[in-house]
Amino acid sequence: MQVYTNVDQLPEFKNAVLTIGTFDGVHLGHKKILDHLIATAKECKGTPVLITFYPHPKQVVKSGKNTVFMLCTQQEKYLLLEQYGIQHIVVVPFDEKFSSQSPEEYIQHFLVDQFHPHTIVIGYDHRFGKGRAGDFHLLEQKAAEANFRVKEIPEKLIQNVVISSTKIRDALLDGDIDTAAEYLGYRYSFRGKVIEGNKLGRTIGYPTANIELEDHHKLVPGNGVYVVEIKLDKRTLKGMMNIGMRPTVGGTKR
C-alpha cells in the first residue's frame, strides 16, 4: 500500500478511479463504496485511488459544535483500508484555505488538474467545496466538459437504519457497543499506555489500569462498566502482574 501526503508530487495514475471522503471508522457503509471503487477500476483497467483528509474537516471548519472525536486513528484507517483492498491513499492536508475553494474550483483545480480522473465514485451524501455546496449533480454537470465519469452509491441500509460515522459515535457514547460493532463490521478498540493514577482501586480490592490514549482525538465510549479484551506488550503485562492485577477478557458492556 502507498500513502501519499504531498498532492503536488503524485505519480500518474493510469485511468484513475477516485473516491473521496474522511472514511472515519471505515464502516460497512464505506465498504460498499470501496467495493464499487475496486470493481469500477477493474472494468476500465484503471487504478483505484482513495482521497482522504487530515485533520478531519469538522475539526477545521468552525461550526459552533464541540470537537469531533475520531473512530480511528490515521494508522488504523490505513490498515482497515488495506484490508479492503485499497493500495493507493492520498492524504490531503485540510485547512481553511482548502475549505474555502468554491465547488467549481475544487473540481477543476483539485480533482481534474491533480488526478485526471477516469471515473469518480462517491457516496449519496458526499458534499464538497465552500459551504459544502457541491454535490453529485454538480459533478455530473462538469463530467462531460472535463472528460470523466461519475458514479453515485445509494444509501447502505442495515435494518432500515442508515450507517454513518455519526450514528456509530452516538452508539459508542451511549455505551451501545454491540450496535457500533454491527455498523463498523468489527469490534471498536483503542490503544494507549498504562500510567500511574491515584491508586484508589487498591483501597477497595480492585486494582485498576489508567490508560493514556495514544491519540487524544480518538473517541472513548461513554461511562460504564465494560468487559473487554486487552492486548498487552510484555513490559506492561509484567508491571500489572507485579501489583497483583490479573488481565481478563470478554466482549460487551455490563
Tell the overall outline: elongated
Assign a percent range to the helix content.
Answer: 25-40%
Calculate Rg over CA atoms: 21 Å
| Low-pLDDT residue spans | 245-254
Total helices: the number is 10
Largest sheet: 6 strands, parallel
How are the strands of the largest sheet arranged?
A: 1-4-3-2-5-6
Sheet-strand content, in percent, reads: 15-25%
Reading the helices and strands in chain order gives EEHEHHEHHEHEEEHHEHEH
Q: What is the β-strand count?
A: 10
Structural class: alpha/beta
Task: Write up what this structure looks like.
- By secondary structure, the protein is of the alpha/beta class.
- Helices cover 35% and strands 17% of the residues.
- A hairpin with a 2-residue loop joins strand 7 (157-158) and strand 8 (161-162).
- Helix 5 (103-115) packs across helix 6 and helix 7 packs antiparallel against helix 8 (177-184).
- The longest helix has 16 residues, at 28-43.
- The chain is elongated.
Quick summary:
It is built from 10 helices and 10 strands. By secondary structure, the protein is an alpha/beta fold. The strands form 3 sheets. The protein has a 6-stranded parallel beta sheet with strand order 1-4-3-2-5-6, with helices on both faces. Strands 7-8 form a two-stranded antiparallel ribbon. Strands 9-10 form a two-stranded antiparallel sheet.
List keywords for this structure.
six-stranded parallel sheet; alpha/beta; 254 residues; single chain; 10 strands; disordered C terminus
